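Ticket #4471: structure export looks truncated?
Reporter: QA, pipeline team
Priority: medium

Steps to reproduce: submit the single chain below to the structure queue and open the exported record.
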Amino acid sequence: MRSRFSAYVLGLTDYILRSWHPSFRPSQSDMGGMQLKWIHLDILGHQSGQIDDDTGEVTFAAFYVAGGKCKKLQETSRFEQINGQWLYRDGDCTVAEIGRNEPCPCGSHKKFKRCCAVLD
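Actual output as written to the record:
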């Protein structure tokens, strides 16, 4: 999950597509999230996903900025291990807005409006 988040931050579309399960992979033109400014990732938990498992789930919260607003995407992602590589299948997610006066999720201890909102 961390490597996919980093790929979104860096705009590495090829890596995102390669780490997506072929049966669920979108076309490059259908990929959302590549144009967003991702600022922080919190891994909230996982189920299975050990070396001997075929499937696993990761629950995470990812924060991004778009249009001067900060949003929190929380998802439980499902992965499948094929030939020793974990591939993203799909997930269930919700998106919520973070208020301008709330602490910035980047960890700066500043209010969002004085931190990452300025960079958008």
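Status: closed, not a bug. The export was complete when the record was re-opened. Leaving a note from the reviewer for reference: Residues 2-10 form the longest helix (9 residues).
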